[in-house]
Write a structure and sequence with these properties.
CATH topology of the largest domain in chain A: Rossmann fold
Strand order of the largest sheet of chain B: 2-1-3-4-8-7-9
Structural class of chain B: alpha/beta
Number of domains of chain A: 2
Number of domains of chain B: 1
Helix content of chain B: 25-40%
Bound molecules: thiamine diphosphate, iron/sulfur cluster
Strand order of the largest sheet of chain A: 3-2-4-5-7-6-12
CATH architecture of chain B: 3-Layer(aba) Sandwich
Number of strands of chain A: 14
Largest interface: A-C, 26 and 20 residues
Number of helices of chain A: 13
Largest sheet of chain A: 7 strands, mixed
CATH class of the largest domain in chain A: Alpha Beta
CATH class of chain B: Alpha Beta
Oligomer: heterotrimer
CATH topology of chain B: Rossmann fold
CATH superfamily of the largest domain in chain A: Thiamin diphosphate (ThDP)-binding fold, Pyr/PP domains
Largest sheet of chain B: 7 strands, mixed
Shape of chain B: globular
Distance between the termini of chain B: 51 Å
Order of helices and strands of chain A: EHEHEHEHHEHEHEHEHEEHEEHEHEH
CATH superfamily of chain B: Thiamin diphosphate (ThDP)-binding fold, Pyr/PP domains
Number of helices of chain B: 10
Distance between the termini of chain A: 44 Å
Helix content of chain A: 40-55%
Chain lengths: ~350, ~250, ~180
């Protein structure tokens, strides 16, 4: 096994991408993910890869569209305002079904907001921030090691399903340094039979289908079928922490979930039966598991650094059957474990 | 009581606060010069400054005029909207090189091409200051930045863009000039040029584009004094300081 | 055992770097660690801090709200963080730059003439290492040897030449107590 080394989340992500076969990176500076392009600009040339600083996020996402149309393992990264600019491109890529790994290290919004950690882009990520009926796979890691693991997985999935995969982190995960074990460098030979530039019969990468009934509708039905099969395949990405046999269950993801764990440890020492359910894939959402666990508890709590965005999906899964109480931090403010501890004590 | 003639004081439009710019940065100097000009024309109450995304994002904390904070690169479009609603107001779009020439290139060119009656103040410091020193469109060939660790290489990154020369290919702009603020003489000269530009706007002459060769001691890793020397000796070789067009003098 | 540490001072005092060195040393001793720096706009004001958590089990929250160990490099940091630490916390105060005594009597405070000692060693920038050396002796959360062994991982490309000087400063700080 490789040695445990200390790495900043953003740099661990960049190195993991390279080891997962990413050779093309296009991106535009924005805090708090600037370490990704900085790392890529140094590291990619060493492995015969290509780094281009795009003139904007609009350009970044379309460079990814072009590289993806060639079947390449390619990535862009940004933070909230930049990801907003990419929504048009993500819609096109989804329609045209090309691979793309997109990283969002979320920061406080709306607008220019601030550069502190946030989870305010949940809806944008999981409900389709651009136009049309589409879905992207969204992973929400909670540690540097998970950033590494899910970045590697993201590249395999984006090639397999021809669907954008987003790593949804936040400023804290990007800036925090933690021990990680990096995977070996993969030698990638993707067997791709649909891309352009293979010198065979004409290939058109497109999202325009002028006739509704027998063209665009069919295309959409095909996409939806693909989404259903992805939902079936990727239903195992969640973590349960002391979640068996408890009266109260906290739902949280990413950074917030980690902080919740610290509070849970303290509450358990006082014999309060409380656990955590943490979805790691936010789409597909582990709905079945949540439905089944919801029947076993008295009350649920939701913690998120946004106003009831993630909570909405929990509520949809619960279908009103159990009480849910949500707590939110807005505009880049973060929870600490003392606070969560107090809030739970007051509300059970 | 102290008597005598006041030779120098803080311009009225410049707020009496600490700026968050790094010591020796051209931004603080240009903020002040802009305020002096606003005072001299007595247009504080009808001037609108558009704050860019960049180190000058808190422009409105220093300049006591109405202000709109733009999305990255979109300042000239917002300026257009304001000017079309209130043609008698004085609208100033103050932008860095990443903002103006990279993400905002389309807005920059099209606002100039429409000849909007606004003044663009372009702070060219050859890097992205706020985000920690990445390559900008104006980064010189060979210059080391956070995203060009071996120096800007034209084969991968292209050549630095000369903004005035580019704008000068368009028909509509009224006044185009490049200045620097490296010593008192050039500072006086810059103020004169910027004042002329704003005067043109007051007289409804049309679009002005004033580029300032600026420093970024922090991300260049230089003392302010050395950074001014670098502008003098290196930067202004590639970006000649001159008036490119002045329809008022033609 | 979990320790929650905050290091705080001016930008330029090597706060983030010393936090990383501490984390690396703790990692070498087989601990779990997290290091979270204040970044961006927070740094602009001239102050700078980072949180380090060291534990023998998985670390849940990397956010340090109430530290049990505090390294204060300047007065503004003392103003900000002294009140936050838990009763019984160990607080290391750089009294070259902080004239004020600890305001709380429920904490153990230690005064370290770090900046002056660094100056005597010929480089004001190694005050951070004096503080870390003292931390090792006072708290024992990491061994001096681990800090020394961690040095090449953290300083590698940036200033290898300074490693010897930094090690000397660590030892000097360690020797103060
Ligand atoms: C859409 C979007 N992308 C990226 C950013 C991050 N960002 C903030 S300032 C900046 C660059 C500023 O550089 P420049 O315009 O040269 O101004 P300077 O800071 O040097 O004055 C960038 C990329 C952002 N805020 N919004
Ligand atoms: S980072 Fe550069 S441009 Fe920004 S305020 Fe500091 S010196 Fe000026």
């Amino acid at each position: 096994m490789n040695k445990k080394i200390l790495m900043k989340g953003n740099e661990a992500l960049a190195e993991a991408a390279i080891r997962a076969g990413c050779r093309y990176y296009f991106g535009y500076p924005i805090t708090p993910q600037n370490e990704v392009p900085a790392y890529m600009s140094k590291r990619l040339p060493e492995v015969n890869g290509v780094f281009v600083q795009a003139e904007s996020e609009l350009a970044s996402i379309n460079m990814i569209f072009g590289a993806g149309a060639c079947g390449a393992r390619c990535m862009t990264s940004s933070s909230s305002p930049g990801i907003s600019l990419m929504q048009e491109g993500i819609s096109y890529i989804s329609g045209a079904e090309t691979p793309a790994v997109i990283v969002n290290m979320m920061r406080g919004g709306p607008g220019l907001g601030n550069i502190a950690p946030s989870q305010g882009d949940y809806f944008q990520a999981v409900k389709g921030g651009g136009h049309g009926d589409y879905k992207i796979i969204v992973f929400a890691p909670a540690s540097a090691q998970e950033i590494v693991n899910f970045t590697v997985l993201a590249f395999d999935l984006t090639i397999k399903y021809r669907i954008p995969v987003m790593i949804l982190g936040d400023g804290l995960l990007g800036q925090m340094t933690e021990p990680v074990v990096l995977p070996e460098m993969k030698e990638i030979q993707d067997d791709i039979n649909w891309s352009i530039c293979r010198g065979q019969d004409q290939v058109i990468i497109r999202s325009l289908y002028l006739v509704p009934e027998n063209q665009l509708e069919l295309h959409n039905l095909h996409l939806q079928k693909k989404y259903r099969s992805i939902e079936k395949d990727l239903n195992k990405y969640y973590e349960q922490y002391n979640a068996n046999d408890c009266d109260y269950l906290i739902f949280a993801y990413g950074t917030t979930a980690r902080v919740c764990k610290a509070a849970i440890d303290r509450l358990q020492k006082e014999n309060i039966k409380i656990g955590l359910f943490r979805p790691i894939s936010l789409w597909p959402f582990p709905k079945e598991e949540i439905i089944s666990i919801s029947s076993k508890i008295k009350k649920a709590f939701v913690f998120e650094m946004a106003q009831a965005q993630f909570e909405e999906d929990i509520r949809l899964s619960f279908e009103g059957k159990k009480e849910i109480k949500g707590f939110y931090k807005l505009g880049g403010a973060i929870f600490n474990d003392d606070e969560i501890y107090e809030l739970i004590k007051k509300n059970i | 009581m102290i008597t005598g003639k006041i030779l120098y004081k803080r311009p009225k439009t410049l707020k009496d606060v600490n700026m968050s710019y790094c010591p020796g940065c051209s931004h603080s100097l240009m903020n002040k010069i802009l305020c002096e000009i606003i005072d001299e024309f007595d247009i504080q109450k009808k001037t609108v400054v558009i704050a860019p995304v960049g180190c000058a994002v808190l422009l409105y904390d220093y300049i006591d005029c109405d202000s709109v904070e733009a999305a990255h690169g979109r300042a000239p479009a917002i300026a257009t909207g304001i000017k079309r609603v209130n043609p008698d107001n004085i609208v100033i779009s103050y932008q860095g090189d990443g903002d103006l020439l990279s993400i905002g290139m389309a807005e920059t060119i099209h606002t100039a091409n429409r000849g909007e009656n606004i003044t663009v103040v372009f702070m060219n410091n050859a890097v992205y200051g706020m985000t920690g020193g990445q390559m900008a469109p104006t980064t010189l060939v060979g210059q080391i930045t956070k995203t060009t660790p071996s120096g800007r290489n034209p084969e991968n990154e292209g050549y630095p863009i000369r903004a005035c020369e580019l704008i000068n290919t368009l028909e509509a702009p009224y006044f185009i000039a490049r200045c620097k603020v490296t010593n008192s003489k050039s500072i006086m000269q810059t103020k004169k040029i910027l004042k002329k530009a704003i005067g043109y706007q007051i007289n409804k002459k049309g679009y002005s584009f004033i580029e300032i060769l600026s420093n970024c001691p922090t991300n260049w890793g230089m003392k302010p004094k050395d950074s001014n020397k670098w502008i003098q000796e290196v930067m202004s070789k590639y970006y000649p300081v001159k008036i490119f067009r002045d329809k008022g003098e033609a | 055992m979990t320790n929650k540490i905050i290091l705080a001072g001016f930008g330029g005092q090597g706060i983030i770097l010393s936090g990383l060195l501490l984390a690396q040393a703790a990692l070498l001793e087989g601990n779990e660690v997290t290091h979270y720096p204040a970044y961006g706009a927070e740094m602009r004001g001239g102050t700078c801090n980072c949180s380090v958590v060291i534990s023998d089990k998985e670390i849940s929250s990397p956010i340090v709200n109430k530290p049990d160990i505090l390294l204060l490099f300047n007065q503004p940091s003392k103003n900000k963080f002294e009140a936050k630490c838990i009763p019984g916390a160990k607080v290391l105060i750089n009294n070259s730059l902080i004239n004020e005594q600890a305001l709380r009597n429920d904490i153990s405070s230690f005064y370290i003439d770090a900046t002056n000692t660094a100056n005597k060693l010929g480089n004001i920038k190694i005050a951070n290492m004096i503080m870390l050396g003292a931390l090792s002796k006072i708290t024992g959360i990491v061994k001096l040897d681990s800090l020394i062994n961690a040095m090449p991982e953290i300083l590698s490309a940036r200033n290898k030449k300074l490693i010897d000087l930094n090690v000397q400063a660590l030892k000097e700080g360690y020797g103060l107590f």
